[in-house]
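Narrative of activities, Objective 1.

The group set out to show that a structural description can be obtained from nothing but a protein's sequence at a throughput compatible with the screening campaign. Below is one input-output pair from the validation batch, recorded exactly as produced.
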Amino acid sequence: IGACHLSASPHSTSRLGASRLGAALVGAACVIVSTLASAQSGAASSNAQSYPNRPIRLLLGFAPGGGSDIVARLVARPLGERLGQNVIVENKPGAGGNIAAEQAAKATPDGYTLVLLPSGHASNAAMKKSLPFKPVDDYAWISTVTTYPLALVVAPDSPIQSFGDFITKARAAPNTLTYSSVGVGTAMHLVGEWILSEANITAVHVPFKGGTAPLGELLAGRVNVMIDTMTSTATLLKEQRVRALAVTAPKGGSPIAGVPTVADTLPNVVFESWLGIAAPAGTPPEIVAKLNDALRAVLAQPDIRQRLTDWGGSPQASTPAEFRGRVERDIASLQGVMRERKIEQE
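Output recorded for this entry:
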């Protein structure tokens, strides 16, 4: 449209008619372009104002019944009530959540396909040599839903009495103590290696594929320390089936009375898992803002906050920019751990 400004000075009267005709044609074309641009802008604004006018899909990369599924269904109903349309959870399990992440990244950016992403999205980005989507740029980040630290737990009768005791015993007997995770390259694995690096100690990593196997091995005494999310260990702690050594919350921010944070001993080690909602990149800002406002209202509800707290989390809404920044920082931190510990990408 900027090219529609004409500044012509004919060099001869014989060319004056042609110049005026050309100017008239260009001017007409510019009016058409300007009108189309205004119409498109108006349509986009109208779509955002009328959004949503049909049900919204909330993709989830894990099977029904797990922690992420429970959180997705907890927020989907009240979110739909706020928006005036049903928010339908669709489970797309597989590839560590990447199937749902890819489908969301490639969906039409109209606000009708959302995805609940876990912090494993960041560890996948750090661990994988290539992914079928850009882990940051392919998304419009709406808001985090909840955050929760990882917990380092032992069997109730374990001789390891504290996090400091774990470090002392590991230093005295290198590569003797073991710690479990739910898989190579997961946040639990990489945070475990981060702790070993910062404490300048060694221990043996024992990966599992999730399920109850890590707990069984811990209670049988074949694994010394289990690293898992608070959402997975909160019930075990309440039932006194395990004992917590430390959590990876920010210093002074432990959600468990009497249990220190890892950062109390190793200040650099702070990691909080998260669940958050995103949309495909290119989703109109007005729709992103409307979703963010609605999700904030849901997370302010006392019943929702209590349920998330009971599951070991901390209800935490964010701005889209804050959510994007968290993802970028987590990817960078975990990549740093991999370089330090010489862990190869898959």
